Amino acid sequence: MPKYANTTLPTIVLPHGGPWVRDKWEFSSGYFVPIAHYFANRGYAVLQPNFRGSTGFGKHFTSAGNKQWGIGSMQQDITDGVHYLIAQGITDKNRVGIMGGSYGGFAALAGATFTPDLYKAVISYVGPSDLNVFMASFPEAYRPYLGNFYAAIGDPAIEADRKDMAARSPINFIDNIKAPIMLIQGANDPRVPQEQSELIAKALFNAQLPVEYILAKNEGHGFIQHNNKLASIIAMERFFAKHLGGTKSDSDDPDLVNHLATLTVDVSTL
């Protein structure tokens, strides 16, 4: 949280990826921990929930997330965290956004579709939008982990699982969405392919819903190139400032602003 806050705050919910990891009370060089500090500096409260399915709290806590993606206990824990901050007078209920990467990106899209009145701005960073397509296109290199994903999400070869995954996939509930959405994707992502962002980008555009799409052609599952990272941060900062009313820099590096323009996709061309 920002220091010396004496009023309700715009809030960014930042569910971690994995989901088999956890956020800790420490600084890390990972992408999203500095992002939490960055947005706190910009005047936001930042919530990093360790929802059911996270690791570090015992086997039963982790397995409690099995087949709970989207509309189950994992998302409910995130929602409950937001309601708690509102009840405590920390969060302005009219200025809540959600963003995350990988699983966190999925959780952000799930927040937009399954609790549409809660969030006013949503960013999905390399997050899946269609669980059936995601599981059916599981990359060969990750096949040793496939059993874990079958248990956590579902097996597309099983009809009941396919129906369940469809019911938990944001792509199938576009009409619920009220918040503007930003999608950030690497074109070479082997874990969450570009298709996952473009499916929902096209669906949002066709539904005449506000969507922004940033695509880095030289990135994979997360940005590692310095200029791409910084340009994406500028985009996120501007997006949340516009929709949640937080502060933003008035002196962005012109080279990064120009680079951001090269990463920004006209969704109407997809």
Automatic annotation (TrEMBL):
Gene3D superfamilies with a match to the protein in the record: alpha/beta hydrolase
Molecular functions per Gene Ontology: serine-type endopeptidase activity
Pfam families per the UniProt record, alphabetical: Peptidase_S9
Domain Peptidase S9 prolyl oligopeptidase catalytic: 36-246
Annotated InterPro entries: AB_hydrolase_fold, Peptidase_S9_cat, Peptidase_S9A
PANTHER family from the UniProt entry: DIPEPTIDYL PEPTIDASE FAMILY MEMBER 6 (PTHR42776:SF27), SERINE PEPTIDASE S9 FAMILY MEMBER (PTHR42776)
Protein's recorded name: Peptidase S9 prolyl oligopeptidase catalytic domain-containing protein
Taxonomic source organism: Pseudoalteromonas peptidolytica F12-50-A1
